[in-house]
Amino acid sequence: MTNIFTSLELPNGTIIKNRFMKAATSETMGDKEYRPTSELINLYRAWANGGTGLIITGNVMVDQTARGEFGNIVIEDSKDLTLLKQWAHAGTENGAKIFMQLNHPGKQSPKTISKRPVSPSAISMTGANSFAFNTPRALTNVEIKVIIQKFINAAVVAKDAGFSGVEIHAAHGYLLSQFLSPHDNQRVDECGGNLKNRMRILVEIYQGMRAKLGADFPIALKINSSDLREGGFSEEDSIKVIQEMDKLDIDLIEVSGGNYEKPAVQGIGKGVFFIKYASKVKNTIKSPIAVTGGFTTANGMSKAIENNETDLIGLARPLVLLPDLPNQFETGNFTAIKLHHLTTKLNRLDKKVSSLIGLSYYQQQMQNVAKGLPVQITDNAWSSLGFAFKKQGLSALIPQRG
Ligand SMILES: Cc1cc2nc3c(=O)[nH]c(=O)nc-3n(C[C@H](O)[C@H](O)[C@H](O)COP(=O)(O)O)c2cc1C
Predict the structure, then answer these.
(1) DSSP state of 136
(2) What's the whole-model pTM score?
(3) Do the domain assignments include residue 63?
(4) For helices 38-49 and 347-370, what crossing angle results, to 10°?
(5) C-alpha distances out from residue 43 to 87, 253, 365, Å
(6) Which residue from 20, 183, 297, 314 has the fewest beta carbons nearer than 10 Å?
(7) How much is the pLDDT for 400?
(8) Distances from the Cα of 202 to the Cαs of 107, 168, 184, 314, 332, in angstroms?
(9) Do residues 173 and 206 both lie within one domain?
(10) Other C-beta atoms within 10 Å of 116: how many?
């Protein structure tokens, strides 16, 4: 019987040695020129040696002018190939495979980075986090073509550097997810309107990559099961996109959900958020599926594989806190991990900054792992809030007196 330590063969023949997948976790450990630092490389060595079969990098941006956070890595050409090779090498130690996640934030690029972010349409962000973002302007058709080319170029550099594959990030409300969503995409040209048009940018990126990378090089897709709001990207749309990408021979589909306006990706204690959806879709496609979001127990992970509900177990926060979770699992030393709900103990502040804290706490812990320091288990959010302000330059968002 297939279990969590059985290898997985992707349709193109790539072998993943077991079913643990480190989901993307934006580490924000790039230097001032958007290059990987030695700390980042250390962190990936820890994950590879911790036993994970497939490691997805934190999102790497394809355009210097459009970044989601300070500390993002950006690839626009091959000038940093030597450092990227070191990163790929660290992530493939111990038989692990490493896929580089490629992303463009679209309007989810904060004020501190983008005065005027871009998006399919000029529709502002809403929700508790909207204060951090400027209203975007709509991309022109020529600009869309340039962005497609940037994704393709970055994927070619990833392959040259020795990464085992790439993952296109079309989830969590970033640019490709904005194109897919009828709420964010109100274009009336060939990139808006019906689903075929809304997914055109994604298909062109994928086909362009495939033409350059060849049939043997894995290309994965991260996609939302829905963006969890009325008039947005629905489950029916999501299934159709997955099936279409499957027909085009995508190598792996990772299912997730939500965006900065309706975060679902950082839920605690809600179980495995997308498993029902994934097992429904799984029977209709040939590509393997990874489910990410909410796995915390050894039993839950094992059962999801043994019951054939997913092919890979995507883990983000658990692998930050326990980078050697798969090794511990193998020796019988892992049963469950508790994810704490971080709080400032000030209700109104928590509401405003909860998703920010949720990210920065884990970014802080990744930095500890990278430096060989112990992770800090706490529910006190103040240190993470300070870390976020320092790192992301958020003080610039606080209204100045006078
Ligand atoms: C610190 C942090 C950074 C993240 N960065 C990314 C990212 O760069 N790309 C992405 O697709 N998801 C990102 N995510 C979302 C995770 O990949 C994952 O979907 C989410 O945390 C739910 O999985 P979990 O319950 O195993 O943590 C991030 C999550 C965290 C906590």
Answers:
(1) P
(2) 0.96
(3) yes
(4) 80
(5) 10, 25, 11
(6) 297
(7) 36
(8) 17, 8, 15, 22, 42
(9) yes
(10) 11
C-alpha angle 327-56-106 in degrees, rounded to nearest 5: 150
pLDDT digits (tens, 9 = 90+) for 128-176: 788 889 999 999 999 999 999 999 999 999 999 999 999 999 999 999 9
CA 387 to chain centre: 21
Centre of ligand 1 to C-alpha 316, Å, is 5
On whether both 348 and 395 belong to a single domain, the answer is yes
Site to substitute for ligand 1 among 57, 99, 317, 325, most atoms within 8 A of C-beta: 317
CATH number for 70 = 3.20.20.70
**225 CB less than 6 Å from ligand 1?**
no
Which SS3 state, helix, strand or coil, does residue 199 take?
Answer: coil
Mark whether 375 and 287 lie in a shared domain: no
At residue 396, the pLDDT reads 47
The 10s digit of each residue's pLDDT in 268-300 is 666 677 888 998 999 999 999 999 999 999 999
Mutation probe of ligand 1 site: the residue of 99, 221, 265 with most atoms within 8 A of C-beta: 265
For residue 137, is it within any domain? yes
Query: What does the pLDDT read at residue 389?
Result: 83
Confirm whether 398 is domain-assigned: yes
- Total count of domains within the chain: 2
Cα 76 to middle of ligand 1, angstroms: 23
Task: Tell me, yes or no, whether 3 lies in a domain.
Answer: no
Whether residue 168 is found in the same domain as residue 250: yes
| Tokens matching residue 170 | 């079309």
For residue 319, give the ligand 1 atom closest to its CA.
Answer: 26
Give which of 186, 178, 20, 182 is closest to 94, Cα–Cα: 20
Q: How far apart are CA 304 and CA 284, in angstroms?
A: 18
Q: Specify whether 331 is located in the same domain as 346.
A: no
219 in helix, strand or coil? Answer: strand
- Nearest Cα residue to 129 out of 265, 37, 6: 265
How open is the CA angle 110-113-114, to the nearest 5 degrees?
A: 75
Entry field: residues in the chain? 402
Q: Which residues of the chain have pLDDT under 50?
A: 396, 398-402
344 and 331 in a common domain: no
| pLDDT recorded at residue 401 | 34
Helix (H/G/I), strand (E/B), else coil: 202: helix
Q: Which helix (H) or strand (E) holds 167?
A: strand 165-170
Show the domain range for 372: 340-402
How far is CA 349 from its chain centroid? 26
